[in-house]
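User: For a reading group we're discussing how well predicted structures match intuition. Take Response regulator receiver domain-containing protein. Before you show the prediction, I'll give you the sequence so everyone sees exactly what went in.
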Amino acid sequence: MKKRVLFVGDEEIFRIALRIALKRKKIDLVAEADRSLKNLIPALDVNDFYDLLIIDISMPEMSGIDVLEYLTQEKKDIPVIAITDHMHHDLRFFCSGIRSIRIIQKPFDQNELIGEVLKLLD
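Assistant: Thanks. Here is the predicted 3D structure of Response regulator receiver domain-containing protein, as structure tokens, for the group to look at:
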């Protein structure tokens, strides 16, 4: 069965490159176009639909930390890859409530990200 990854981020070129790279590994990428937390929550509430969440922490319309906080409060058991341009205290705090999480700092090599995706989906 194909694995499904939900990506939440505002960089379209990154979404396209990630979709192509994951497709080669037989992984479906579902890019969330509407990046507001209110509209993202229903997607996260569908139990066992997504196998992994990749989220950009810094976005203009929503903070990835808000999503991590939601996942922690609601006790959602979904592996997460958080992409950030800098590590800060809030990120470390909200990551502590998530069982399977990897933090990747920008800039990063795409192979590093794909490697982490494969580890978390294994």
